[in-house]
Design a protein that fits this description.
The structure is a single chain. The protein is globular. It is mostly helical and about 260 residues long. The protein starts with a helix and ends with a helix. The chain contains 13 helices and no strands.
Length: about 260
């Protein structure tokens, strides 16, 4: 990829990763029509770091509170959900690469995501995430890793599962992104290890650094947009966007474009 393509890749990756819109689904569709980006392992690792920093900066008060009081029940619930995600991610993190060559599959899963988003907007609970049980949080973390399927989204899945349990919007948003921190950390370390193990080097240049910064900025914007739309009861707009992408992609595939 040239410098421009690398920056665009980072910006799109950051935004779609941290919104309920599925980065892998969009990447699958984009690559089918315009070719493979051939992103390096180093670039993917830096993007994961940028996404991690975006979440940490946005929710720094909540994360600092957990660090200061690590023995509270909320910490165990969040770690339990994250642990489930980390375990699944370690063993199945490459599954997306094999499935992204099938654009119709991405369209189908994107339709599932659109439905999940639409129904999530109908929930208006008053409970807190701390009211979830340990088994519930573990199962939620496991199901969240369906995001490895192109077209599925981690934030969309977690928000749906948590809010369907009666958890309030504000608490569900914080819980969703907080459990992403250890998951992204695990993915970052895994990608870094794989890169060193397979190639023996970890080369980072200016394009990768700029792309990572773009990913962090768009990821931060994505978090804020998601939070704003949920709180203003306009979350269904994400579903409408997904529907438009599905129709355009399906039409292009049928026409053989």
């Amino acid at each position: 990829m040239n410098l421009f393509q690398t920056i665009i890749f980072g910006a799109l990756s950051g935004f779609f990763h941290l919104t309920p819109l599925s980065w892998f689904g969009h990447l699958s569709i984009i690559q089918y029509f315009w070719g493979d980006f051939n992103a390096s392992a180093a670039l993917l690792t830096l993007i994961d770091v940028a996404l991690l920093l975006a979440i940490v900066i946005y929710f720094y008060k909540d994360l600092w509170r957990l660090i200061r009081h690590p023995r509270q029940r909320y910490t165990f619930i969040a770690l339990c959900a994250a642990l489930a995600g980390v375990v699944v991610g370690i063993f199945f993190h490459n599954i997306s690469q094999g499935l992204m060559v099938y654009p119709w599959l991405s369209v189908a899963f994107l339709a599932v995501t659109a439905a999940v988003i639409w129904f999530t907007g109908n929930y208006h609970g008053k409970k807190r995430a701390i009211d979830l049980s340990i088994p519930e949080s573990f199962i939620i973390g496991l199901l969240g890793m369906l995001c490895l399927l192109p077209g599925m989204s981690f934030p969309a899945i977690i928000l749906f599962l948590v809010m369907s349990r009666g958890v309030s919007k504000q608490s569900a948003i914080k819980f969703t992104y907080i459990i992403m921190v250890p998951i992204l950390l695990g993915m970052t370390l895994g990608n870094w290890y794989d890169t060193l193990f397979l190639t023996g080097t970890f080369t980072v240049g200016i394009p990768e650094g700029i792309a990572a910064m773009a990913a962090g900025l768009t990821g931060f914007v994505g978090i804020h947009l998601t939070k704003t739309l949920i709180e203003k009861r306009k979350y269904h707009r994400f579903a409408i966007y997904c529907a438009v992408v599905i129709l355009l992609t399906a039409g292009a595939l049928l026409l053989g474009m």
